[in-house]
Amino acid sequence: MKTGIILLAIVALISLIAALLVTLGVSIPCIETDTLPAVAISSGVLIATLTFVRERKKQETESELKKDEINIEVIANSFDEVYNLLEDMNNSRVIWIRVARVLLWAIELGETITNEAMKKSYELQKERLRTRLYFLMQRKPENNEQYDSESLPGQFFYGIPNWEDRSITIDEAAIASHPDIAQAHRVNFSTVVPSPKASELDVSSVVAIFDFIRESDLLENDPLEGVKVWEGEPASFDIFQGPANYVAHKNRYRVVNGELKEKNS
To answer: What pLDDT digit, counting tens, does each position of 49-59 carry?
Structure first.
């Protein structure tokens, strides 16, 4: 559009110069002098129209960018809230519902972002939260020497306070999350009937949060897929020695039943 406006401006300028020369009595061969004023005016009007359209598009683009910037800030704050509410490893039904709702609303807001740079920023923020939640939603295994971590037990999600007690079965946790409420209450204007305690986590909130964490394993455009793994002999200089040794060793060997074997054997 910018090139078109420049060409029209040149045409309009030539027409105006030609019209001025004709007015001064200068004869210009091969040009219909009667049409010069109309051409100049038409070109000017068209230039003004295209300029208006271009400025309008520019304003719309700037407006969309500003909206994306605001949305990115809201999403960042929402993701921080999600992590902060779960950071203490609580299993409160109310808090987990709140977290799931904030998370889903933030994701929905992220889908409205149109600017490509802002989309990348949004994906980076999502990946950051996924990683933080992944390390948060696990506990230390009993055998620390053999295992790095293990999943939170099902007992945790029943909302019982002593879920870390490994002697408690998931059946016992389920029963404990539903205390006996077979108690009659007389209703009158002076008293209120207490609500039964529900400690078990809402299933939808649990699924929403863990689906979000697992989504990193289902990325369609994982940037790691484009990484070319090193081949050949390991490097022998600077900080690259260790990682290069590891990659070369990993490419050559595998562990089977506690023994090291060459992959090609």
So the answer is: 666 666 666 66
Amino acid at 111: E
Structure-block tokens of residue 210: 């863990």
Give Cα 152 to chain centroid, integer Å: 25
From CA 229, how far away is CA 235, in angstroms rounded?
14
Residues 6+ apart with CB under 8 A from 126: 79, 107, 110
What are the distances in angstroms from CA 252 to CA 8, 150, 260?
Answer: 67, 29, 10
Q: What is the pLDDT of residues 187-237, one digit of tens each?
A: 677 777 666 667 889 999 999 999 999 886 556 667 777 888 888 776 667
Res 147: pLDDT: 80
Q: What angle is formed at CA 222 by the lines to CA 220 and CA 228, rounded to 5 degrees? A: 135
CA torsion sign, 14 to 16 to 19 to 24?
negative
- Contacts of residue 4, defined as CB under 8 A and 6 or more positions apart, other chains included, come to 50
Tokens of 185: 């209450």
Predicted TM-score (pTM) of the model is 0.69
Integer Cα distance of 79 and 128 in angstroms: 9
